[in-house]
């Protein structure tokens, strides 16, 4: 075995844990050898790119290229197709799905922020929550109406510029909030980012005269 | 398209999503208009619902909405506009999201869309009532103030 791959392989055992956890739950045997084994956090799966873990120890910002490289290496090692032992195959499939999900979550700043907050017990994904920031609501509505009233593709360009600036500002504030461990500010900013990302999706999906329906 | 119509009749959710009713805006400064603006931060949806109230009968004479969100949120608000037209404010304020969800056969994961619509009508009624209870903060208010003193 290639030396650089050895720690990775050892580390890839982490990936089998979600399957283990599920199995121990379903068998509900009291004699489980590791009753409190938790599935690894998404951060634990990428020790090279994210050695300090989630904020406040690690930073919110990350290097997407490094993350991708580490993801590809891990994926090669744990892909169900490279595992011949049939008893391990199912676990490998669960582990592989978990890895994919971890990667896409960490790669997207919005999903990453939501995930970090979830790790800290802050819920931003409860659909019954209501936005109490009147100013933000008005701004979102105005931005939406501008897109709706746009006649041509080129008319979208200034709207995109404005929205990209909103996203950039949100990411800077999120970085600061997480660095200072200010979870209240991080939560508020994650909500804003959710709206700006939806607006970006609407800009990308824009077709003349067609109302934009969000898919989520 | 005949096929499309059949589908729309069988599935009110699709009908309201494909042909949303009463889309539009009213002048929010109009004292007879109540505006409800609500947002669900988890989904990034916004819903604006406006009612025009007939002062004499205290009933809703016109309704408009604009929803930027998923199909179920659009359908929920569209159906709600049809439901509340002609209703008294009291009755409209008592509408429960379950009525909307039942009519549209919303799946459990989309129940929150009907709750957003319920919140929107409540917020519009509240806005109308807060407007009609206090004198307009403009020239009209000064006139009314000077008349009453």
Automatic annotation (TrEMBL), chain A:
Q: Which family does it belong to?
A: Belongs to the HscB family.
Coiled coil regions, renumbered to chain: none
Q: Tell me one Pfam family matched here.
A: HSCB_C
- What protein name applies here? Molecular chaperone
Keyword field contains Chaperone: yes
Q: Which organism is it from?
A: Discina gigas
For this UniProt record, the keywords arranged alphabetically read as follows:
Chaperone
Q: Which gene encodes it?
A: JAC1
Is Cell division there in the keyword field?
A: no
Q: Which domain of life is it from?
A: Eukaryota
Which residue numbers delimit the Co-chaperone HscB C-terminal oligomerisation domain?
A: 133-204
Family annotation (NCBIfam families)? hscB (TIGR00714)
UniProt xrefs under InterPro entries = HscB, HscB_C_sf, HscB_oligo_C, J_dom_sf
TrEMBL record, chain B:
CDD domains in the cross-refs:
IscU_like
> What's the protein called, per UniProt?
Iron-sulfur cluster assembly protein
Task: Please report the stretch or stretches of sequence annotated as the NIF system FeS cluster assembly NifU N-terminal domain.
Answer: 14-133
The Swiss-Prot or TrEMBL record lists the needed cofactor(s) as:
[2Fe-2S] cluster
Pathway annotation: Cofactor biosynthesis; iron-sulfur cluster biosynthesis
Organism equals: Discina gigas
For this protein, the record's InterPro entries field holds:
ISCU, NIF_FeS_clus_asmbl_NifU_N
Which compartment or compartments is the protein found in? Answer: Mitochondrion matrix
Q: Which Pfam families match?
A: NifU_N
Purpose of the protein:
Scaffold protein for the de novo synthesis of iron-sulfur (Fe-S) clusters within mitochondria, which is required for maturation of both mitochondrial and cytoplasmic [2Fe-2S] and [4Fe-4S] proteins.
Matches recorded under PANTHER family: IRON-SULFUR CLUSTER ASSEMBLY ENZYME NIFU HOMOLOG
Q: Which gene encodes it?
A: ISU1
Which coarse location class describes where this protein primarily resides?
A: mitochondrion
Could you say which protein family the record assigns here? Answer: Belongs to the NifU family.
